[in-house]
Amino acid sequence: MMRGAIFRTLTIVGVGISAVFACSSAAFAQGCALCYTDAAATGPHAQAALRHGILILMIPATLIVVGFFSLLCLRRNMHRESVERLPATIPPASSTISEIVLDLN
Questions:
Q1: pTM of the model
Q2: Is the pLDDT confidence value at 102 over 60?
Q3: Which residue from 33, 42, 67, 101 could staple onto 46, CB 3.0 to 4.6 Å apart?
Q4: Element (H, E) at 102
């Protein structure tokens, strides 16, 4: 019961903070005065080219992030599965230093 209430509270706070950041004027770009004036000074064709360029440059970054998280999801249990396949026998304890060194290699 307590864990569910904490999770619900954190979710509500997280959504609230996200909404505040999404509604801020800086979230909609053009925060840099130089960028804004340069983009406003160009013609409509150049503004369209800037918009297309931004979209085109988002594609590789998005693909890299999606690929990274896909790789993480595919490989997240690889170590656990390889450990589960090992036999459950425990090797006998070594008593001499040479046996300990051989066990470490």
A1: 0.43
A2: no
A3: 42
A4: helix 97-104
